[in-house]
Amino acid sequence: MPKKKNKIVLAYSGGLDTSIILKWLQENYNSEIIAYTADIGQEINKSKIIKNAKRLGVKNIIIEDLKNTFVKDYVYPMIRGHALYEGVYLLGTSIARPLIAKRQIAVAKKFKAFAVSHGSTGKGNDQVRFELGYYYFGPKIKVIAPWRIWKLKSRTDLIKYAKKHNIPIPKDKKGAPPFSVDDNLYHTSTEGKVLEDPRKQAPEYIFQRTVSPERAPSKPSYVNIGFKKGDPISVNNKKLSPAKLLQKLNLIAGKNGVGRVDLVENRFIGIKSRGVYETPGGTLLMIAHRAIESVTLDKKTMHEKDEIMPKYAELIYNGFWYSKARFKMQKIVDKNKSKVNGQVKLKLYKGNTTIMSRTSSSKAYSIKKVSFEENKSFKKKNVEKFINLNKNKLLK
Predict the structure, then answer these.
(1) How far apart, in Å, are the Cα atoms of 317 and each of 44, 124, 326?
(2) Taking Cα atoms as reference points, which of 290, 223, 276 lies closest to residue 251?
(3) Measuring CA to CA, which residue among 183, 187, 351 is closest to residue 282?
(4) pLDDT tops 60 at residue 181
(5) Which of 10, 14, 248, 361 has the fewest CB atoms lying closer than 10 Å?
């Protein structure tokens, strides 16, 4: 009776790079490869994934629909925390990796695999994010990171390897690619090649989810986002699942040129890199969530959240979604989320987003107290005492 092969679970996209990795793992580890694809809203061709994996002899091909889980359990908590890395990046790639890693380990346990593998390069952040997730759910799992250990050093080497093993090479992959793209339901990121020189403007053809503000409609669009217990539940008064809601907002914002960011960021491993990010629906959610909190939460709660936000965002960026520090901060973020209920109306026009109204049954905001009309609900005489108490802090 033939000896059973060891098993490796590979995060597999069906594209050239992960197909090469798949073959390389078969050659170098004499193992059965389980191809795992998490559908989190990226551009995906399921038939191509299955066809390419089968061509390489893979028997177990798993494509898992995680779109609602991704938005509900990963994107929404991050929106509640108003997480922005280095002031502008909405962390679209960062937040996807923890979920993929979690499910990869679950598959590895199910099939009793000894190892997991990913296609992240040796210079990027994703290798850290994947592997910290692997170790959280599978502390004893072996992690194989081909880009850190194989002898294939260039695109030319990869093409030669693919030809040798009859791995199909897409036409646009035969030369150096113009840029690298990662996408999911929350965002699209574009890096490398034409974007590596920060002195040069990002060419318009790289944008995939948003039209340029100049080409956006000449009439504004309006969108009403409803919130319940801190999370969005409706668009224009229609209740939607988390995935459908984000899809809807992506379309509305994208056609109005909303959600572009061009950032030179500081990677966790110490390298600076330039990335162009499109997060149309996420941009609307971030603006609307802050707006609804402004009329539903007290000052202390809001300021506590703002104080921890930079560190909270950095933890996510660096791959520490499952860390004790992030869990602790999430409790601060969500402490009074049950109070965050209501609707926010936004106007979108040529790349800009304006808050039109905030509606809530909350009593946190009092028109009586802020009114310029005389009223008895606010004791102005107490203001002098308040100033006197605080003037002593000037000398501390």
Answers:
(1) 24, 12, 11
(2) 223
(3) 187
(4) yes
(5) 361
CATH of 182-297+336-359, one of 3.90.1260.10, 3.40.1000.20, 3.40.50.11500, 3.30.110.30: 3.90.1260.10
Type of residue found at 10: L
Q: Which of 80, 97, 129, 326 is catalytic?
A: 97
Tokens of 210: 């948003």
Residue 82's pLDDT band (cuts 50, 70, 90): very high
Which residue would you say has higher pLDDT here, 152 or 251?
Answer: 251
Q: Which amino acid is at 296?
A: T
Q: Does domain 7-78+93-177 have CATH number 3.30.365.10?
A: no
Q: Annotate 158-212 with DSSP letters as a single string.
A: HHHHHHHTT----GGGSS--S-EEEE-SS-EEEESGGGS-TTSPPPGGG-SS---
pLDDT interval class at 1 (50, 70, 90): very low
pTM of the complete model beyond 0.90: yes
Residue ranges per structural domain of the chain: 7-78+93-177, 182-297+336-359
**56 has a pLDDT exceeding 80:** yes
Question: For position 2, what pLDDT does the model report?
Answer: 47
Structure tokens at 234: 């409706």
Token pair 């919130």 is found at 227
Query: Which range has the worst mean pLDDT, 11-20, 69-78, 176-185, 211-220?
Result: 176-185
The DSSP result for 355-384, as a single string, is EEEEE-S-SSS-HHHH-SS--SSS-THHHH
> For residue range 325-338, what is the model confidence (pLDDT) as tens digits?
999 999 999 999 99
C-alpha 272: how far from chain center: 19
> Would 7-78+93-177 and 182-297+336-359 be classified into the same CATH topology?
no
> Would residue 19 show up in a list of annotated catalytic residues for this protein?
no
At residue 37, φ and ψ (nearest 5 deg) are: -125, 125
From the list 13, 31, 126, 231, the catalytic residue is 126
Average pLDDT, stretch 55-70? 97
The reply to whether 180 belongs to the active site is yes
Tell me, yes or no, if 73 is annotated catalytic. Answer: no
How confident is the prediction for the chain on average, in pLDDT?
A: 93
Give CA–CA dist 212/209, Å, rounded: 10
Phi, psi for residue 106 in degrees, rounded to 5: -60, -40
Spatial contact of 117 and 25, defined as CB atoms under 8 Å apart: yes
